[in-house]
Design a protein that fits this description.
The chain has four helices and three strands, in the order E-H-H-E-E-H-H. The protein is elongated, with a radius of gyration of 25 Å. It has helices at about 10-15, 20-25, 50-75, 80-105; strands at about 5-10, 30-35, 40-45.
């Protein structure tokens, strides 16, 4: 059984006339509603659980961008070429350390 809630697309006028039953269906997690005015999607009706998940994902995304900005600031004066070279060196160093640990584990 699929855990993805299906999405129904409706014109605004139909949404308005069926609002009570649509809200019940959304509450029961039977559907999500995408509301159109003309051919343009303008709103959605989703469950509180969906909204809370969206808000959590938005917060996590903002936190990730803040971490990336902080990281980027440390390298603002480094050219992209030099940064790529440093990253390649760091990756090679970590791989060498992991290989050494693996070999040490084999000789125990």
């Amino acid at each position: 059984m699929s855990t993805i809630t299906p999405t129904e697309s409706l014109k605004f006028t139909e949404t308005r006339s069926r609002l009570s039953s649509l809200v019940d269906s959304v509450f029961q997690r039977k559907t999500r509603i995408r509301v159109y005015k003309g051919n343009t999607p303008v709103a959605a009706i989703v469950s509180i659980a969906d909204l809370e998940r969206l808000e959590r994902l938005d917060r996590e995304r903002e936190e990730a961008f803040a971490r990336m900005a902080k990281f980027s600031e440390a390298f603002r004066d480094v050219s992209p070429e030099e940064l790529e070279m440093r990253v390649d060196e760091a990756v090679a160093q970590v791989r060498a350390e992991m290989d050494a640990e693996r070999l040490a584990g084999l000789h125990r």
